[in-house]
UniProtKB/TrEMBL annotation:
Keyword Acetylation: no
Residue runs in coiled coils: none
Domain HTH araC/xylS-type: 223-321
PROSITE patterns assigned: HTH_ARAC_FAMILY_2
Keyword list, A-Z: Transcription, Transcription regulation
Pfam families documented for this protein: DJ-1_PfpI (PF01965), HTH_18 (PF12833)
Top-level taxon of origin: Bacteria
Gene3D superfamilies: 3.40.50.880, Homeodomain-like
Protein name in the entry: GlxA family transcriptional regulator
């Protein structure tokens, strides 16, 4: 049996606690005896979460043995942690077989020296702080979770569920993880290297209307077709074509697009096409060749290169791992 111990403190984010716990509890329901789930606060007293909920722990940290999986959630309380939390983590963290953080829980792990020399992530809004305060940590702001040896760190809130599902799959197999995901009405589909933001969220919205129409769209007229990149990922989305839709020169368009969105047109198009291809692989039974054309790659080989570069896997393998069992195959 694997003991999962969740560290509680005042100001903890309630979903950082309950999301992963529901996943591990789902694994326990599918395979009784797989997990023993415990919660602990510094002194064993109830804690108040950042949303105002009161949570009563099972025990005090001082009475807690080193668990198999030590999970540290995030929340406002990580800014000024209760006395003893960091010291307890510094003592017990290195002995845990698996060390996990959700959201800004990574800040507590870093303060305890448990992320030194490791690659890690946290909520996008706190990545700069984590990197600044702990230069020995290699902070990657993009993925929803990062695995580095026995240490796993994740981005905010729902990313903790994704990471917990990955751990259950590792412990108990894919079918158990899928059953847990279905029970929670979530999909076992987001790999750790998926970006915290979609292309549309990662890029700022352009201020000028012509650029915004190309980026986000505007209704078609008899003289204008859809200009939205996301509406037509398989179309001609070269700088010259996009610039013509915005009635700008290619050079002016490229410079203005990057200045206003924080991303080059090519980078934005690449991310939109990759996201669209992933959705089609997950949600349809369309063939790889058909998907590559629909997403603007042209050939399966071009799509394979894009997947290998961005995700470290091939489209067929991605589909095998992340398409729900309910999607039929041809």
């Amino acid at each position: 049996m694997r003991t999962v111990l969740v560290v509680l403190f005042d100001g903890v984010q309630s979903l950082d606690v309950t999301g992963p716990l529901e996943v591990f509890q789902g694994g326990e329901l599918h395979v009784p005896g797989s997990y023993r789930i415990r919660t602990a606060s510094p002194d064993g007293a109830a804690v108040r979460t950042s949303s105002g909920l009161t949570v009563v722990p099972d025990q005090a940290l001082t009475a807690s043995a080193t668990p198999h999986t030590l999970l540290v959630p995030g929340g406002q309380g990580t800014r000024n942690p209760a006395p003893g939390v960091v010291a307890w983590l510094r003592e017990h963290g290195p002995r845990a077989e698996r060390l996990v953080s959700v959201c800004t829980g990574a800040i507590l792990l870093a303060a305890a020296g448990l992320l030194d020399g490791r690659r890690a992530t946290t909520h996008w809004a706190y990545c700069d702080r984590l990197a600044r305060d702990h230069p020995s940590v290699e902070v990657d702001p993009d993925p929803i979770y990062v695995r580095d040896g026995h240490v796993a760190t994740s981005a905010g809130v729902t990313a903790g569920i994704d990471l917990a599902l990955a751990l259950v799959e590792e412990d108990l197999g894919r079918e158990v993880a899928l059953g847990t995901a279905r029970h929670l009405v979530v999909f076992l589909r987001r790999p750790g290297n998926q970006a915290q933001f979609s292309a549309q969220l990662a890029a700022q919205t352009a201020r000028r209307e012509p650029l915004r129409e190309v980026q986000l769209g505007a209704p078609p007229t008899p003289l204008r077709q859809w200009g939205r990149i996301t509406e037509n990922p398989g179309g001609d989305l070269g700088v010259e074509s996009l610039a013509a839709r915005a009635c700008l020169s290619p050079r002016h368009f490229a410079r203005a697009f990057q200045a206003e969105t924080g991303m080059t047109p090519g980078r934005y198009v690449d991310r939109v096409r990759l996201e669209h291809a992933r959705r089609l692989l997950e949600d349809t039974s369309d063939g790889v060749e058909e998907i590559s054309r629909a997403c603007g790659y042209g050939t399966p080989e071009a799509m394979r290169r894009a997947f290998a570069k961005a995700l470290g896997t091939a489209p067929a393998e991605y589909r095998r791992r992340f398409r729900p069992a309910s999607v039929p195959t041809r």
